[in-house]
């Protein structure tokens, strides 16, 4: 059954975290979307929970309601602003073209998830939600972080790109003069927000004055 988004929030955005390195990108994206007033629908794979516990100070619960509470506390979300779904919650609105939001981001996106999405496997809710985004011609952004890339990975990326999926590798630039790891994370999150059409001030655009003295602005690659 489709549930209407709270009218006090901006349009819902689906964010899925899978088992690639780079959990910080996905968590930061959730924080920024919450701060921008969007409702955020979250899915975290089993492998992603392990990566989050390894790469960050956080150990997030797997149970959806407890996950909502943990993410809401972390992101300072308002009640109802975050919704979380389990890997086999087939009644979740993201599983249907009539209920899914207009945009979805998989960040980080493991090469296993990339493969499943490219082949339409739909073995779990994250893969099904991505499949729905493709079939409904909605915005889908995949953020892989793998190196080096094999021909299998590249062929899957090319196939998805030809379907209109945005392939946005987690490869931060350095020409904006990053001073902290957070600056590198924000570089990628800013690129994702650009693809979603969401205004932000995470990094200055090319041609704009930098936020700090002698710091060049950031251009789109």
From TrEMBL:
- Residue ranges annotated for the Flavoprotein domain, each copy included: 12-196
Residues engaged in binding dimethylallyl phosphate: 175, 191
The broad enzyme category this protein falls into is transferase
Among SUPFAM superfamilies, the record links this protein to:
Homo-oligomeric flavin-containing Cys decarboxylases, HFCD
Which reaction does this enzyme catalyse, per its entry? dimethylallyl phosphate + FMNH2 = prenylated FMNH2 + phosphate
Indicate whether Hydrolase appears among the record's keywords. no
| Protein task | Flavin prenyltransferase that catalyzes the synthesis of the prenylated FMN cofactor (prenyl-FMN) for 4-hydroxy-3-polyprenylbenzoic acid decarboxylase UbiD. The prenyltransferase is metal-independent and links a dimethylallyl moiety from dimethylallyl monophosphate (DMAP) to the flavin N5 and C6 atoms of FMN.
Q: What is the name attached to this protein's record?
A: Flavin prenyltransferase UbiX
Tell me the organism's taxonomic lineage: Bacteria, Pseudomonadati, Pseudomonadota, Gammaproteobacteria, Oceanospirillales
